[in-house]
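Supplementary Methods. Inverse-folding protocol.

Structures were first reduced to a discrete structure-token string of length 137. This string, shown here, constituted the complete conditioning input.
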């Protein structure tokens, strides 16, 4: 008989963050296939924006956060875990919205697909953390 074992909320949240990281990575990898993108990167630019140390440090911090969320989702106590997941989910949605106004080119369809999937995952993270009941804490 098939059973659906209950997945611990901490593990579930960690899995959502892992999936989100894969989407971020694959989206960036696919962008390398756009004509002229590699040449633009080699010149230190992407969509008209010059790469500077502060921009790259900011990008590094931004891309480090989901990886840390995998770890934090598993090791934090429930109350802090819930708060951090809701906060980071909202923060990443705001970043996703903010990136709509950066760059010169209209994003390709694959990019929009990834953005929609990322938004769904972030909303699910917030929902799971929000609904995490006191009895499960």
């Amino acid at each position: 008989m098939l059973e659906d074992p209950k997945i611990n909320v901490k593990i579930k949240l960690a899995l959502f963050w892992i999936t989100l990281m894969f989407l971020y990575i694959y989206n960036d990898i696919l962008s390398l296939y756009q004509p002229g993108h590699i040449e633009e990167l080699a010149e230190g630019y992407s969509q008209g924006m010059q790469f500077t140390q502060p921009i790259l440090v900011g990008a590094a911090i931004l891309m480090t956060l989901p990886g840390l969320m995998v770890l934090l989702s598993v090791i934090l106590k429930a109350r802090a875990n819930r708060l951090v997941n809701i906060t980071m989910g909202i923060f990443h949605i705001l970043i996703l919205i903010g990136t709509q106004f950066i760059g010169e080119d209209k994003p390709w369809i694959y990019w929009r697909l990834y953005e929609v999937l990322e938004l769904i995952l972030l909303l699910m993270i917030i929902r799971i953390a929000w609904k995490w009941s006191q009895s499960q804490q």
